[in-house]
Amino acid sequence: MPGWPTAWTSWAVSPCLRTKPSKLTAEMAADFLGCCPEGVAIQSMAVAQTSQVLYAVCSEAINVVLPRINLELGGDLSDFARMQMGTNLLQAGGGAAFGLFADNYGPKAALLAAHSAAICSSAIFAAAHSKAFLYLGCIPLVAKHGYQAAQQVATLHSVRSSRTKALGRIGTAYGIGFLAGSVVITRLAVNFSPRGIAACSVAMDVCTWLVVWALYPESPRNDSEDLAERSQSPKNSGLSDLARHRYVPTLLVFKAVTTGSAGMILGLLQQFALDPFRLSLSSAGLMTTYIGIAYLVAQAVVAPALGNQSPRILVLGSSAVIGLSLGSLAFASGPISYAALLGPLVISSHASNVAINSALTLFVSQEEQGQVLGVSMACTSVGYLWAPLLAAGIYQHLGFPAVPLVAAAILGATSAISLLVLEYEAMPNST
Question: Hey, which CATH number is domain 25-217, 1.20.58.100, 3.40.50.2300, 1.20.1250.20, 1.10.357.10?
């Protein structure tokens, strides 16, 4: 059977690469991916999801080894906290600018730019010989927005009815990479130092870049004509122009507060696992796996099931479910109940984020998809900026039960204001 390798490769690869795959194959693939049934859309989503799995593995590796490299270089917890805060600030500003870049140059350029930033940053971390050099590695993170770029692929190649499903599939791919990263790091830790693992992450990032460069399809339109049209379009005049869209500013503010409220727990979940709940290292590892599974459930099952909801339903549903999840955590009496009650919070908060992102993309033009996703990502970073600091202060003065209760109260007050604003925006004369 001398010809079997060629035949098998043709059978396995051709459904993704053919311009016009068979109707059954195209419909099945499109239904699974949440995209349009055209060959270009299927291939684009397949590449985006593959890149997200690899991207998540690399990101998880860096997140695990970075505190250890910081410790090797003489840094302490306060040094690492400052570095994390600086990273969040860079990514908050970079997310909005990156969205504008993606609108102007397309999703392929955005994916390549994001993975190039990941390569640069990880390489600097692996080679860092001082704390200053380590901080230098944070600068490329301003453009490390691979998840955001993949989300734009999903929005460009999906219709309104499947938008939430397409975005959920991107999140599912990232969640699979997150879980795989935990397994990979455990194996690599046997034979590699933290710097060695960071170097392996660089190699995998390079492979991801090559996958996108080689397999992501070029736009069927002439790029110069497309850029010329966008530069002349009044709809693409800048980020501030997003405020003219009904519901968009309200949903963005609500998302920032929702993310922050959940982040008061999720941003410090490992610290709370240690104090006051005193989880052992092995138990904390099991808790991380459980959270990863909950994240997958949110992205793969709950978010697609939500479909496209009105802004009012999104705000009501998100505040109710996330608020109940937060409130229940105030009654956690031990490590088992604490870990168990994190699951509903992870599922509700991440499913809400996907649904809000989906709604935001439906309220703006195609030329503004990258901008609105960028600002949405910036709102997530802003939420994680203030939440851990507030939660730490409340915990020190009032104890753990007060943290989720205050978070739920902040979410409830913001939800009430958001509902009033949405009611006003829904009035015909409000435009």
Answer: 1.20.1250.20
Residue-level length of the chain: 431
Helices 163-191 & 39-72, crossing angle to 10 degrees?
Answer: 40
**Residue at token pair 């753990």:** 400
Structure tokens at 96: 């909005």
Q: What is the pLDDT of residues 78-100, one digit of tens each?
A: 676 677 777 878 887 787 788 78
pTM of the predicted structure, to 2 decimals: 0.69
What average pLDDT does range 224-248 have in this prediction? 54
Position 21 confidence tier, pLDDT thresholds 50, 70, 90: very low
What confidence tier does 288 reach under pLDDT thresholds 50, 70, 90?
confident
Q: What is the spatial distance between Cα 100 and Cα 367, in angstroms, rounded to a whole number?
A: 9
Residue 224 identity: S
How far, CA to CA in Å, does 257 sit from each of 87, 251, 318, 353, 409? 20, 10, 11, 11, 11
Assign residue 74 a region (left: φ > 0; alpha: ψ between -120 and 50; beta: otherwise): left
Chain-wide mean pLDDT for the chain? 79
> CB–CB of 314/352 below 8 Å?
yes
What's the pLDDT band for 77 if we cut at 50, 70, 90? low
d(CA 44, CA 312): 33
Burial pattern 99-111, b for ≥16 Cβ within 10 A else e, equals bbbbbbbbbbbbb
In this structure, which amino acid lies at residue 335? P
Q: How far is CA 240 from CA 231, 235, 236, 360, 425, in A?
A: 16, 11, 10, 15, 18
| Alpha-helical segments (H) within 34-130 | 39-72, 77-105, 107-127
At the second CATH level, the architecture of 238-431 is Up-down Bundle (1.20)
Assigned token pair, 308: 């496209």
CB-based contacts of 327, cutoff 8 Å, min separation 6: 404, 405, 408
Domain ranges across the chain: 25-217, 238-431
What pLDDT is stored for residue 121 in this prediction?
92
Question: Residue 18's pLDDT is what?
Answer: 47
Q: How far apart are CA 96 and CA 176, in angstroms?
A: 26
- In one-letter notation, the amino acid at residue 367 is E
Half-sphere exposure of residue 81: CA atoms within 13 angstroms, side-chain side: 11
CB neighbours of 20 closer than 8 A, spacing ≥ 6?
Answer: 26, 39
CA-based radius of gyration for the chain? 22
Task: With cut-offs at 50, 70 and 90, classify the pLDDT of residue 15.
Answer: very low
Assess whether the region 25-217 and the region 238-431 belong to the same CATH fold: yes
